[in-house]
Amino acid sequence: MELYSSLLGDGGDGTTRLNMIKWGFGWFLESPIWGYGIGNYRMLLFEVIGRESYAHNNFIELLVGVGIIGFILYYFMYFYVFYNLYQLIKKKVPFAITLFALFTTWFLAETGAVNYTSKMTYVLLGICIAYIRLNKSARLKRINE
């Protein structure tokens, strides 16, 4: 809860974070298609406040770094996982709801963290995609028998 109240800018560190998001969105609007290059949020922020820092927000960091094209390409993986895990949940496939809850929690954490550099993000994506593919493969095998 503290994360979200700080994002709303109710004093302390939240005001800085809210400004970092506002500045980042402004930079994104200046170069919306391709962005400034991965990791360049730091340099842009340095020009404003005199010190480097990351955006503390995966969405802003990616929008500034790789623009809307890179953002869509990156989050397509997430859409694939969310959609397919949801389909498995509707079919009452075991463990799908657990993975869905874990993945949703990880996704929500990206409002206050930069996860595209985290190995854990790709481990979690890999586990989810493997689970989805194994379930699709098993269903196809049952259909063909």
Automatic annotation (TrEMBL):
Residue stretches spanning the membrane: 59-81, 93-109
Topological type in the membrane: Multi-pass membrane protein
Compartments, record wording: Membrane
InterPro entries xref list: O-antigen_ligase-rel_domated (IPR007016)
Keyword Transmembrane in annotation: yes
Domain O-antigen ligase-related: 10-74
A GO molecular-function annotation: ligase activity
Signal sequence range: none
Keyword check for Phosphoprotein: no
Primary location group: membrane
Keywords carried by this UniProt record: Ligase, Membrane, Transmembrane, Transmembrane helix
Protein name: O-antigen ligase family protein
Organism field: Evansella alkalicola
Organism taxonomic ancestry: Bacteria, Bacillati, Bacillota, Bacilli, Bacillales
